[in-house]
From TrEMBL:
Keyword Transmembrane on entry: yes
One CC-aspect GO term: membrane
TM helices/strands, residue ranges: 20-41, 47-69, 81-100
Keyword flag Iron-sulfur: no
Name used for this protein in its record: DH200=94 genomic scaffold, scaffold_1713
Any one of the GO BP annotations: amino acid transport
Taxonomic superkingdom: Eukaryota
Residue ranges of every copy of the Amino acid transporter transmembrane domain listed in the record: 18-103
Cell location: Membrane
Keyword field: Amino-acid transport, Membrane, Transmembrane, Transmembrane helix, Transport
Length: 110
């Protein structure tokens, strides 16, 4: 939530963004709005699990390995390339299993 709060604070005029109470008010409003969304959507936890299982694995495991290979290019050793491909494959399998699990849980509840 911190990046969202900082982005909102950057949009505020300088006289508001320097005030401690605006700092607290913006963060409190973000937390309360998240709480309202969680209460209003019946399967919010399952939807968040679906999003997390797909995008978290892709951003934390798959993308760094792909970027590593892209940045090094021809300088990467064969071992580095093989390990990066193995990490990407394991990440994709994990993302598929997690997404399947989340979708099946969502289908059971719905």
């Amino acid at each position: 939530m911190n990046p969202l709060a900082r982005s909102i604070e950057e949009l505020l005029p300088a006289r508001f963004s320097d005030n401690f109470w605006w700092f607290i008010s913006v963060r409190t409003a973000i937390v309360l709005s998240s709480l309202c969304v969680a209460f209003l959507l019946p399967f919010f936890g399952l939807v968040m699990a679906l999003i997390g299982s797909l995008f978290s694995i892709l951003m934390a495991i798959v993308m760094p390995a792909l970027c590593f290979v892209k940045i090094l290019g021809k300088k990467a050793t064969r071992t580095q390339v093989v390990l990066s491909i193995a990490i990407v494959a394991l990440g994709l399998v994990s993302a598929c299993v997690g997404t399947y699990n989340s979708v099946s849980d969502l289908a059971k509840k719905y």
